TrEMBL record:
Protein name as it appears in the record: lytic cellulose monooxygenase (C4-dehydrogenating)
PANTHER family: ENDO-BETA-1,4-GLUCANASE D, PUTATIVE (AFU_ORTHOLOGUE AFUA_1G12560)-RELATED
Keyword flag 4Fe-4S: no
Taxonomic source organism: Lasiosphaeria miniovina
Keywords from the named record: Carbohydrate metabolism, Cellulose degradation, Copper, Disulfide bond, Hydrolase, Metal-binding, Monooxygenase, Oxidoreductase, Polysaccharide degradation, Secreted, Signal
């Protein structure tokens, strides 16, 4: 029986982790994993990123992309979590426009190219804290109607706070999808930030206190672009 314990513990740990491997466009899910989503380094182990200074904070990429999905500005784009979002914390969505001269399959989103398109943040009530994305299999947002048409990387991140009592304890589960936005507008998304660079391990949005209980919480990073 003792020989089985490490395996049981490992299985339990892996099941608690997750990955975002498929997208859903206006209610229609992809049939296979890693189609429009670039395959991530956790495609087998489901682990998250804990070093916010790592280049893995961009797309956690294991291999280049192979496909691009199409969505109309104002449409709903979702990411499907293998199993579900099994840790509490915020879920955020960033977008980076791919230069017209670049190949979307291989473009590296380095530098100040990302803007925050949406955030599913904590909700505080008299009863305590709730996390709307917790235990959801699909997390979604609306592509801003005024975002310019073109090809984008869309980055989802789920920030797990269950071990985030000290700096470096947050686990970030992320993926990047390759999409082409049509029917867009003439907006200028801002502010633009870089990964790594947008977060510091000491950011209050990457820390969580069980006691004393937090009275406020704001997810890390810039404000959502109000298009």
């Amino acid at each position: 029986m003792k020989l089985l314990m490490p395996a049981l513990v490992l299985a339990s740990t892996v099941q608690a982790h997750y990955r975002f491997s498929k997208i859903i466009v206006d209610g229609v899910p992809e049939a296979k994993e890693w189609t429009a989503v670039r395959q991530t380094k956790n495609y087998q182990g489901n682990q998250g990123v804990t070093d916010v200074n790592s280049a893995d904070m961009r797309c956690f990429q294991n291999r280049p992309g192979t496909s691009t999905a199409t969505i109309t500005a104002g449409g709903t784009l979702g990411f499907i979590a293998a199993s579900a979002v099994t840790h509490f914390g915020p879920v955020q969505f960033y977008m980076a426009k791919v230069p017209e001269s670049a190949d979307i399959n291989t473009w590296e989103p380095a530098g100040n190219v990302w803007f925050k398109a949406a955030s599913i943040d904590a909700v505080k009530s008299d009863a305590g804290w709730t996390w709307p994305a917790y235990q959801k299999q699909t997390v979604e947002f609306v592509i801003p109607k005024h975002v310019p048409s073109g090809k984008y990387l869309v980055r989802v991140e789920s920030i797990a706070l269950h071990q985030a009592q000290s700096a470096g304890g947050a686990q970030i589960y992320l993926s990047c999808a390759q999409v082409e936005v049509t029917g867009g507008g003439s907006g200028t998304p801002s502010p633009l930030v870089a990964f790594p660079g947008a977060y510091k391990a000491s950011d209050q949005g990457l820390l969580w206190s069980y006691y004393p209980v937090r009275t406020t919480y704001t997810a890390p990073g810039p404000k959502v672009w109000e298009s």
